[in-house]
UniProtKB/TrEMBL annotation:
Entry keyword annotation includes Protein transport: no
GO molecular function, one term: copper chaperone activity
Protein name from the UniProt record: HMA domain-containing protein
Boundaries of every HMA domain copy: 4-69
Gene Ontology BP annotations: copper ion transport
S-adenosyl-L-methionine keyword on record: no
Key words of the record: Chaperone, Copper, Copper transport, Ion transport, Metal-binding, Transport
UniProt source species: Pseudomassariella vexata
Entry's family note: Belongs to the ATX1 family.
A Gene Ontology term for the protein's cellular component: cytosol
InterPro entries: Copper_transport_ATOX1-like, Heavy-metal-associated_CS, HMA_dom, HMA_dom_sf
Length: 86
């Protein structure tokens, strides 16, 4: 069985509504094994199935309108730039 991925994102969230929005989109995302959104730490940690890509999780979080300040996949820093679909 393939390994799971651990994705960590630093997200600017100012209130419970902000963290709630991130929580809601992650809850609906296919391939998420588990996740934790922390308003206190300003981060979301996602444990993902192998087929769920970092980019997919990043795009999903960005759809909430929150600013993603940094991200990492399996302990390695990754870009937070999303290629815009034309």
């Amino acid at each position: 069985m393939a390994e799971q991925h651990t994705y960590k994102f630093n997200i600017s969230m100012s209130c419970g509504g902000c963290s709630g929005a991130v929580d809601r989109v992650l809850k609906k995302l296919d391939g998420v094994e588990s996740y934790e959104v922390s308003l206190e730490k300003q981060e979301a940690v996602v444990i993902a199935k192998p087929e769920l890509t970092y980019e997919t999780v990043l795009k999903t979080i960005k759809k909430t309108g929150k600013t993603v300040n940094s991200g990492e996949a399996d302990g390695v820093g990754k870009s937070i730039e999303v290629a815009e679909a034309s």
